[in-house]
Amino acid sequence: MHFICCIKQVPDTSKVKIDPETNTLIRSGVESIANPYDMVALEAALTLKDTCGGKLTVLSMGPPQAEQVLREAISCGADEAILLSDRAFAGADTLATSYALTRAIEKLAQKTPVDIVCCGKQAIDGDTAQVGPGIATRLGYTQFTYVTEIKEIDTVNARITVKRKVEGGSEIIRGPLPCVLTVELELAKPRRASLPRLIHSLKSEIGVWNAEAIHGDNQKLGLKGSPTWVKKIFSPPFKEGGPRFDARENPRQAVEDCLKTLLADETFAFHLLKQWGQ
Amino acid sequence: MPKNSKGIEVAKILPEKCIGCQICVAECPVGAIEMSNGAAVIDPEVCIGCGKCFEVCPVEAVKFEKKRSPKKIRKPEEVAQYARDNYRGVAVFIESFNGQGATVSWELIGKARQLAEKLNTRVIGFLLGYEVNDSAREAIAYGCDEVHVIDDPLLRTYISKPYGKALTDLCKKVKPEIFLIGATPLGRDLAGIVATNLETGLTADCTGLDIEEEKNLLLMTRPTFGGNIMATIFCEHHRPQMSTVRPRVFKTPEKNPARNGNIYCHVLEPPHDKLPELIDFIKDVVSGDGVDISRFPALVVAGKGACDLETMPLLEELANLVGGIVACSRPVVEAGLMPYDRQVGQTGKTVAPKLYLGIGVSGAVQHLVGMQGSEKIIAVNADPKAPIFNVADVGIIGDYKKVVPVLIEELKKRKLRN
Ligand SMILES: Cc1cc2nc3c(=O)[nH]c(=O)nc-3n(C[C@H](O)[C@H](O)[C@H](O)COP(=O)(O)OP(=O)(O)OC[C@H]3O[C@@H](n4cnc5c(N)ncnc54)[C@H](O)[C@@H]3O)c2cc1C
Ligand code: SF4
Ligand code: SF4
Asked: pTM, whole model, 2 decimals?
């Protein structure tokens, strides 16, 4: 079987802070990492490969340095890596991203037909969760989003059964291959690379494809192919907040003052002390 | 201005302002800009000083002295083109589950009405499912002028492909200029399919929507970069302008059963592919009792600062007293003290209770986006500088161990008196 895993290099957003005074991003100490959801997708693809056999190709779109996440994937067990890198891809929104990735998957599929594409549920720098469904739709593959468990893969009948998160619970759903899976963090714990694989990954060749290599329509790539534009960026509105009462000296006084302020609103006081209305 | 060896005054990027959107990379005519560690960098030797990057950067991260003619003024014909004449109306996807409309759909109808009034147009509902006529009438009562329904047994349960195709077909027929979908698991799964099929722009998980006056474009605001900053996004040349919107961001409008509206039924043209089949649905077993924190009028929210076993009964008592339930921030879930279903915030639930009482919650952005809609916010925190105080209506600075017991006592007293 042929598995493909899409991986994005992202800034570690959990370390990004806003300087409240200058209203700018504090970047120092923020490194680029592989999107954590994608590493779970990689683990899912590796496990599938372990059980069914076959080949795993990892795919990333980004600047030349994004090669780093692909080497990481190889060190974990991926067989082949392709980096989509070209100025023509720059500034892509989700529509243009799913277009470029789809073109690349189609190209890979010409050589070896693709059975399963694994993506992370979303990328931590954008949180859109749109690229996976975009790829599935363009390729016409079966789409399973928010997958928390791969239950069964039936290679004879080309079917897969997964558990996925839905409103208020989970569903077990079985559908035909080829498919696109987008995975939740709880699906698996990413493995660590072994030393021999790590060394292997450093020596591995990484294919770099530009717009021409994927026969991309320039009108659909990068900024040109992106219907959405960022108009402006701002910090979440800063609020002053209401009065604060210091309880460090005298807790009772502070609590009393606080309740007095709160219950000054009569309807609110009524609801809080009696019962909440509709 | 810095000059390169050819004496050209070059542009420079301020890394602390750059958000890495790569627009400048795409726009630079000579390929002088590269991404490095998430920020754009200009190679001064390649730069020809054209200033394009300066013009396009959305966050003023490019330093460049403009010497050229001022921006050209758009000609009236060009403006007319933006009207996108064939697309009219603000559409809302009405998510329905077992014949019941999802609350977020009604919230969106309320917002759609405001947008439609600014645009002087109508509110359209798109409804898919099986035996969903009641929901169609309800959508009108909440503010739709017309509802387009595809009622078919194949749509009884949600499967991506038939839903995606049916909704795409409706959009192609009805041609709304704006299309809003609730950012529920189902809505997010579906929106990506429809936007890709229609090759239009989709902005995920918006928390704010407005109309820009000049060209009547939809302005979509959403948290990005892990919730650290807000971005306003627009989609100028493609229709519909699509957005998924978080539940509980907008208020549910008043329901008026006497409202008039039209219901149009359309026939399903099913996709030809083999479809997946649903085998089982497993209801979330949440902490034994299946609580949904977003339904409670009051929440006592435990943060990492009040995250120990001994404290929990105290917080339970407080929650009972204010007629609510205990919820928490993410570290409390990570510590295994509360189930994930009780988590408030970006990766947890969005809540908007009448009373939010945060105990030992610092107020990180990712937490705040999930509770800012609360009617009254009280914060108890030992750190006078905790950001939660900035959104709180009333704050108590101090150790919760000393504050909470007194708070319970004083509340009891006042309840008795009433
Ligand atoms: C992508 C992403 C998504 C996230 N999603 C969420 C989310 O959905 N929900 C969420 O909550 N977080 C989320 N987080 C985590 C978030 O960034 C914060 O780390 C988290 O909200 C902090 O929780 P806290 O306020 O309970 O803990 P802390 O930030 O550790 O704050 C503890 C507070 O308790 C106070 N305190 C300590 N001792 C006492 C005492 N004795 N009495 C009174 N006060 C005391 C301290 O002063 C401090 O302010 C997310 C993070 C990322 C990167
Ligand atoms: S000024 Fe012009 S040439 Fe120089 S980096 Fe900017 S866009 Fe490129
Ligand atoms: S356009 Fe501005 S924010 Fe975007 S990458 Fe370039 S410098 Fe950075």
From this structure: 0.78
